[in-house]
UniProtKB/TrEMBL annotation, chain A:
Residues 1-78 form the Ferrous iron transporter FeoA-like domain. It comes from the Bacteria. The keyword Membrane does not apply. This is Ferrous iron transport protein A. Gene3D superfamilies: 2.30.30.90. Pfam families: FeoA. Keywords: Iron.
UniProtKB/TrEMBL annotation, chain B:
It comes from Sphingobium fontiphilum. Residues 4-172 form the FeoB-type G domain. One of its GO terms (molecular function) is ferrous iron transmembrane transporter activity. PANTHER family: FE(2+) TRANSPORTER FEOB, FERROUS IRON TRANSPORT PROTEIN B. The chain crosses the membrane at residues 217-240, 277-302, 322-344, 356-384, 396-420, 454-473, 560-579, 591-612. It holds the Pfam family FeoB_N. Keywords: Membrane, Transmembrane, Transmembrane helix. This is Ferrous iron transport protein B.
Length: 85, 617
């Protein structure tokens, strides 16, 4: 499942990040936000009146906002444990 | 530059760095700029525990030493001793958010590896506790190899301890041990940060987080938008409702000063200079200080509470439609106060085309310098009647002018993104900080700095333009019967300019006011005040009347409306042109901006005038 499709408030962890779908600077910023394979994530809010807006999600202990196309580059697995897969 | 030891405060954004800086230095701060870049340098003085004074500099927040914006580049260059105009710091205070150790420790490790004497401030420990997190600072200190002091900047907790540790590391060690050029790669640092964070966490209990609860409303697609609109409505209402009393007070003072001068001096050129030029001119601008401070109060509050990023989140889908990102909302909202800090705030936008577009439309946000102009014209020409329960016509017109600016900005952005700044949109990636109760002192310091900047402007640019205008209006002296304004140098210049402006309904006096208004928009008001003040001459009855009443006599309604429309797109004040030149590294974009704004302003004023005349107003 993609982070963009993850139901709200369902704990998951990052499986694979397709870095080549992100620009180098976006990739770097996401890394600095603590997004990496194995990180625990949870979608918190969908923005925009018609569901086309950005997604706010928790990554570790941080909350970050990103657009849907970025979230679509992140594959997640649902499950409570983050773990260092 | 002082030769005091330099201590740099550095850390991630949202680590509470600025609050710590304010708590350590108080109101004695010096704002400046790094040479060659427009990044603000914030410095202050601090006495260490042993009494030694040091200079503390607050570096822009960044996530790593791999900069993504000009601000972040300054941080990297300062800590590496490569920033022009700044010496290598004698020590670093690394600020980390206790509740976000995994992330902030990675950057801390990167900084510690630089080998400068370092103290870590484990900040916002109270919020971490609120989140059910208990940390062992001793374990952290042992793992990091530097002193770690738990602090709560907003409550001044841990500051003395921080100052005494800082005294120990400065001058204690000999030359800083440089850890060579090699630094660990990103993943190694992250793994290490994670290991240390886990070791330092004594207990972690899941707890209901306040932020998550508030965000359910604040980020809700419908409720959140209503909340945002409500906040903006209260903000603009507050600008008017709360400013009446202080404005009346300033007006009273100006009047008393005029009377005192008039009583003390004989009628003549000196008295005219002081009353018409200085007191009337500068006073008519200073009177807007309360409104400007109220506007800044709201903007500082929205930023300090952490709400501003939520607003950006809500606005992202709308901004995306005109090819911008939600991030642009923050500089644009600041531009309602003043385009200069607004344009400087675009530095946080990493995509160059997003940033350029945002800079180009920032002046279309109705800045506070336009308020004086709107307020005078609306007060004179729009009847103060109610058009619905609780809705006054004057307020409605003002609201309409703000909306016209916003709609204009969005349309211009759309056109720019399809033409001159064509390209893929940059996207939207932001950290959303936890909500925080702002410390009153932090807000007050921010307001104080804004007030000083405004009064300095009033005392320099606005004062000078008013005085020059008075001179140009007063000389050469007209023969007894002739009008002084017609006869003056300024009157003749304006007469020439009026050939261009007459078709859009502007009279000679407006042309005259527009010239000094390039220095600062609000000067248009003081210029009109000076013109009509000089025109009135010694006629006591005329002098008694307010500027609004005089305008009402002299201008037809379509002219007044055209004047308002002109100011919606008002061509640049010089400070905005200057900051645009600095931020875009050249004259190309500021020239483009001035040209397109002039064209829009001329078109809008013309359309308004012709329509209003045709409608028989």
């Amino acid at each position: 499942m993609r982070l963009s499709d993850l139901p709200l408030r369902q704990p998951a962890y990052v499986d694979i990040i397709e870095w080549d779908r992100l620009s180098p600077s976006e990739g770097q910023r996401l890394r600095e936000f603590g997004l990496c394979e194995g990180a625990s994530v949870e979608a918190l809010h969908h923005g925009g009146l018609f569901g086309r807006g950005p997604i706010a999600c928790r990554v570790g202990r941080m909350t970050i906002a990103m657009r849907r196309n970025h979230a679509a580059a992140i594959a997640v697995r649902t499950g409570p444990e983050g773990g260092d897969a | 530059m002082s030769a005091l030891p330099l201590v740099a405060l550095v850390g991630n954004p949202n680590a509470g760095k600025s609050a710590l800086f304010n708590a350590l230095t108080g109101a004695r701060q010096k704002l400046g700029n790094y040479p060659g870049v427009t990044v603000e340098r914030k410095a202050g003085r601090l006495a260490l525990a042993d009494g030694r004074p040091v200079e503390l500099v607050d570096l822009p927040g960044t996530y790593s030493l791999d900069p993504a914006s000009p601000d972040e580049q300054v941080t990297r260059d300062v800590v590496m001793g490569r920033q022009a105009g700044e010496r290598l710091p004698d020590a670093l205070v690394i600020v980390v958010d206790a509740a976000n150790l995994d992330n902030h420790l990675r950057f801390a490790l990167e900084l510690i590896a630089l080998g400068l004497p370092t103290v870590v401030a484990l900040n916002m420990v109270d919020l971490a506790t609120r989140d059910g997190l208990e940390l062992d600072a001793g374990v952290l200190a042992r793992e990091l190899g530097v002193p770690v002091i738990p602090t709560v900047a907003v409550r001044k907790r841990g500051l003395d301890h921080l100052k005494s540790e800082l005294a120990d590391v400065i001058g204690g060690a000999a030359a800083p041990l440089r850890a060579g050029g090699e630094s660990a790669d990103f993943d190694t640092l992250r793994a290490e940060a994670r290991r240390i964070a886990r070791a330092a966490i004594v207990r972690e209990t899941p707890s209901r987080r306040l932020t998550a609860a508030v965000d359910r409303v604040a980020l809700h697609p419908v409720l959140g938008l209503l909340l945002l609109l409500g906040l903006l409505f209260v903000m603009f209402q507050g600008v008017y409702a709360w400013s009446e009393a202080p404005i009346a007070m300033i007006e009273g003072l100006a009047e008393a000063a005029s009377d005192a001068v008039a009583a003390a001096l004989p009628d003549g050129i000196v008295r005219s200079f002081l009353v018409d030029g200085v007191i009337n001119g500068v006073g008519s601008v200073v009177v807007f200080l309360p409104q400007i401070l109220i506007l800044f109060f709201f903007i500082l509050m929205l930023e300090a509470t952490g709400y501003m990023v939520r607003a950006a989140f809500l606005m992202d889908s709308l901004m995306a439609r005109v090819g911008l990102s939600g991030r642009a909302f923050i500089p644009l909202l600041s531009s309602f106060a003043c385009a200069v800090p607004g344009i400087m705030a675009t530095r946080t936008i990493s995509d160059p085309k997003d940033r350029l577009t945002t800079i180009l439309i920032a002046p279309l946000m109705t800045c506070s310098a336009r308020l004086p102009v709107y307020a005078v014209i609306i007060g004179a020409f729009i009847p103060a009647r109610s058009v619905g329960p609780g809705i006054g016509l004057q307020g409605l017109v003002l609201f309409g002018l703000y909306v016209a600016g916003i709609v204009g900005a969005l349309l211009v952005a759309l056109v720019l993104r399809l033409t001159v700044t064509k390209g893929a949109s940059g996207g939207f990636l932001m950290e959303m900080p936890k909500y925080q109760m702002p410390r009153p002192q932090d807000i007050l310091i921010g307001l104080w700095q804004r007030a000083v900047i405004f009064l300095k402007r009033a005392g320099t640019i606005i004062f000078a333009s008013t005085v020059i205008l008075w001179l140009l209006l007063s000389f050469p002296r007209a023969p007894d019967a002739a009008s002084q304004v017609d006869h003056s140098i300024a009157g003749r210049i304006a007469g020439g300019l009026n050939v261009v402006l007459e078709p859009i309904g502007f009279n000679r006096d407006i042309s005259l006011a527009l010239i000094p208004a390039m220095a600062a928009r609000e000067v248009a008001v003081s210029a009109l005040a000076t013109v009509y003040s000089i025109n009135a001459g010694d006629d006591e009855a005329k002098l008694e009347r307010s500027l609004g009443e005089r305008l009402k006599d002299q201008w037809p309604l379509p002219t007044a409306l055209a004047f308002l429309a002109w100011f919606v797109f008002a061509p640049q004040c010089i400070s905005t042109i200057a900051v645009t030149k600095r931020e875009t590294n050249g004259w190309k974009w500021p020239m483009f901006m001035v040209f397109y704004l002039f064209a829009l302003a001329y078109g809008a004023a013309g359309l308004t005038y012709w329509t209003a005349t045709a409608a028989g107003l």
